[in-house]
């Protein structure tokens, strides 16, 4: 399939003038594609590529040390750029018209053209440097790097990747129009808004497209304002509800209902009966509420209380032992979304472990489920209503259950969902993870109306929120139409007028054979380690090649029992035409089929695979080190530490091991990675990773 060029919204590109600049450049390149009908790879325009220097930034040193984070809005404040002491200046020195590209992280693909750098400036490891050859204009390459012709290809190459990246091979294979330097010079002048008489048609197309883009952008901005208006309206409704303003008229019409203070006494008496019947444990008295704690005034018939006073059960879930399927689902924080319950994200518990679960740990209708860990997820909550065929469910250790007595769960849900509460949640954690503790939940203040008024509030809020949801559906349709309009506006300007181009692009962009990749890695491992491995090593090596060596591995990896795991890779191993599965003293292993051996040896020695083969050799050299000695379990620990660094963006041992305590597995009698691997052994492996400087590849 040919590569399609289209408008790609970029999270780090928000300046409208820069976006228009990229659109203009795309139209210019599109024009050159159609006019000259010649296409080439980027490698034809450059001398070479060079990865940056790996070192720590210093306050003082002999070399300015440019990092991607030092480039803001296409500019560099060299005064604020840190230093390093580079031991190989000839390799890493920056010159005017050098082009730098970010090769990983949230700004993958972002570029910058160097202009008059300080003497002896070098560039950091997350960057790739390119230099134009004498036959080509570096500003033309810069024009290409700031176009959606470029971004379409970068995004296409990163489909399905857990962490986007580009490497030298990917960059060299990108396509652009093949034109001589005189045409390149004219393209640069047009991009810089200079007028050239013979390009009147192109100028008209640029002007028309940018005008239509601006009109569609106004519509999209208005749609986004409507979304924000809807969110603000919902919060205003909830705020009015919890302060009693929605039910002022109701209170005037119902003066003789049971007061909130009487309701609290009734709840207290019911609790005491449950304690006497040994259905509830006796609780420690909660601290008295002080005036300073009260956030706003409430009606006279209401009272402030602590959440623990009106609850009969508040508890975080347990870390379950998972199985592929059972009759008891486990609800995780992924299931608890704002305004909805996503059962598709549930996993299942091993029913043989249910004897460790007391009855109150199983979910009941009306329970409030409150996400209690994680940045971006902590604080999210829903009211549980079982609409499935499962009679029993439990929550994992990242979700708290709040089971109320007498009061309406929906009312408490509305209160805890307000911006007032969410913005002031006190979160902390023993493992440096963001956590909402049981103590915080129990002691949280809640304004309690009379029970009948709670019902009235819930009815009014539900009716008003339904209107908001209807409004949002209309806005969503408007957003879809607005985005379709923008894409339609740009499609005509970006699309090829040359019917042959799809075939040219297909020919120029090499189709990486994922089966051959695995076979090459298998043969190289066999040759260097004199042994064969099964799926565990294949999965771990694949992850390390992708995360550390930035190789174009076409698999997405997630945390699983034996470390990182790709379901697609697992399936491909069993269907790889170059491999067969056999048994050894260590279990199932994969070997090269005898009739395919010569073919894989030939592939291994081809120049285009040199970068991939070198990366494999680097990984295997680490496998041969005394700490690992090629042992599958040690490879698993290496993989676990690297993935923990990637996910936590930290090299702190306590943080890494804390993350491993939350990494659920089902191996022998182990339920977490921390149970399987001791802290001391984890430290040794972490030290090795740091010694190898692999952390520099894992942390943005």
Automatic annotation (TrEMBL):
Stretches assigned to the Type I restriction modification DNA specificity domain: 299-476
Origin superkingdom: Bacteria
Entry similarity comment: Belongs to the type-I restriction system S methylase family.
InterPro entries referenced in this protein's UniProt entry, alphabetically: DNA/RNA_helicase_DEAH_CS, Restrct_endonuc_typeI_TRD, Restrct_endonuc_typeI_TRD_sf, Type-I_RE_S_subunit
Entry-linked Pfam families: Methylase_S
Protein name (record): Type I restriction modification DNA specificity protein
Keyword Signal annotated: no
GO biological process, one term: DNA restriction-modification system
GO molecular function: DNA binding; hydrolase activity
Keywords (A to Z) from UniProt: Coiled coil, DNA-binding, Hydrolase, Restriction system
Coiled coil: 454-488
Gene3D superfamilies reported for this sequence: DNA methylase specificity domains
């Amino acid at each position: 399939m040919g590569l399609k060029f289209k408008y790609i919204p970029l999270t780090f590109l928000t300046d409208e003038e820069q976006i228009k600049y990229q659109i203009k450049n795309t139209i210019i390149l599109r024009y050159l594609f159609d006019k000259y009908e010649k296409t080439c790879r980027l490698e034809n325009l450059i001398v070479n590529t060079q990865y940056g220097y790996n070192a720590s930034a210093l306050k003082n040193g002999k070399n300015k040390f440019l990092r991607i984070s030092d480039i803001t809005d296409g500019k560099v404040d060299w005064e604020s750029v840190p230093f390093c002491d580079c031991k190989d200046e000839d390799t890493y020195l920056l010159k005017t018209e050098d082009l730098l590209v970010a090769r990983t992280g949230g700004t993958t693909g972002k570029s910058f053209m160097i202009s008059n750098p300080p003497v002896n400036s070098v560039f950091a490891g997350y960057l790739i440097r390119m230099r134009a050859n004498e036959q080509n204009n570096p500003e033309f390459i810069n024009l290409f790097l700031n176009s959606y012709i470029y971004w379409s290809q970068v995004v296409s190459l990163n489909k399905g990747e857990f962490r986007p990246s580009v490497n030298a091979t990917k960059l060299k294979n990108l396509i652009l129009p093949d034109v001589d330097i005189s045409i390149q010079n004219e393209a640069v002048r047009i991009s810089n808004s200079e007028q050239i008489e013979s390009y009147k048609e192109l100028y008209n197309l640029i002007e028309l497209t940018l005008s239509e883009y601006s009109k569609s952008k106004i519509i999209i901005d208005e749609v986004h304002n409507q979304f924000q208006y809807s969110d603000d309206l919902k919060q205003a409704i909830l705020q009015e509800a919890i302060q009693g303003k929605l039910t002022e008229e109701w209170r005037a019409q119902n003066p003789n209902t049971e007061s909130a203070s009487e309701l609290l006494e009734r709840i207290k008496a019911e609790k005491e009966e449950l304690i006497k019947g040994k259905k509830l444990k006796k609780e420690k008295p909660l601290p008295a509420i002080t005036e300073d704690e009260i956030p706003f005034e409430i009606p006279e018939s209401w009272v402030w209380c602590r959440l623990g006073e009106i609850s009969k059960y508040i508890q975080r879930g347990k870390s379950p032992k998972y199985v592929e399927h059972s009759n008891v689902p486990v609800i995780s924080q992924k299931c608890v979304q704002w305004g909805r319950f996503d059962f598709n994200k549930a996993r299942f518990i091993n029913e043989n472990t249910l004897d460790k679960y007391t009855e109150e740990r199983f979910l009941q209708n009306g329970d409030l489920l409150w996400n209690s860990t994680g940045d971006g997820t902590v604080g999210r909550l829903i009211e549980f209503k079982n609409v499935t065929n499962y009679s029993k469910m439990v929550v994992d250790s990242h979700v708290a259950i709040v089971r109320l007595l007498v009061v309406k769960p929906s009312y408490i849900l509305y209160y805890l969902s307000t911006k007032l509460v969410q913005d002031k949640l006190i979160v902390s954690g023993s493992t440096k993870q963001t956590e909402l503790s049981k103590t915080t939940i129990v002691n949280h203040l809640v304004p309690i109306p009379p029970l009948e008024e709670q019902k009235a509030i819930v009815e009014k809020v539900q009716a008003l929120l339904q209107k908001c949801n209807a409004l949002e559906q209309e806005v969503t349709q408007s957003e879809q139409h607005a985005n379709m309009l923008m894409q339609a506006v740009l499609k005509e300007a970006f699309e090829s007028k040359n019917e042959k181009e799809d075939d040219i692009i297909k020919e120029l962009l090499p189709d990486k054979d994922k089966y051959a990749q695995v076979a090459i890695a298998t043969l190289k491992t066999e040759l260097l380690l004199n042994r064969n491995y099964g799926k565990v090593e294949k999965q771990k090596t694949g992850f390390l090649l992708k995360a550390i060596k930035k190789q174009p591995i076409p698999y997405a990896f997630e945390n699983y029992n034996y470390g990182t795991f790709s379901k697609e890779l697992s399936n491909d191993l069993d269907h790889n035409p170059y491999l067969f599965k056999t048994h050894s003293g260590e279990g199932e292993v994969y070997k090269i089929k005898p009739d395919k051996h010569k073919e894989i040896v030939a592939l291994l020695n081809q120049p285009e695979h040199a970068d991939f083969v070198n990366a494999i050799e680097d990984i295997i050299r680490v496998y041969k080190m005394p700490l690992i000695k090629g042992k599958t379990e040690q490879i698993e620990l290496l993989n676990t530490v690297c993935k923990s660094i990637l996910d936590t963006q930290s090299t702190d041992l306590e943080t890494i091991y804390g993350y491993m305590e939350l990494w659920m597995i089902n191996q022998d009698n182990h339920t977490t990675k921390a149970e399987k691997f001791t802290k001391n052994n984890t430290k040794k492996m972490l030290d090795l990773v740091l010694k190898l400087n692999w952390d520099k590849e894992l942390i943005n």
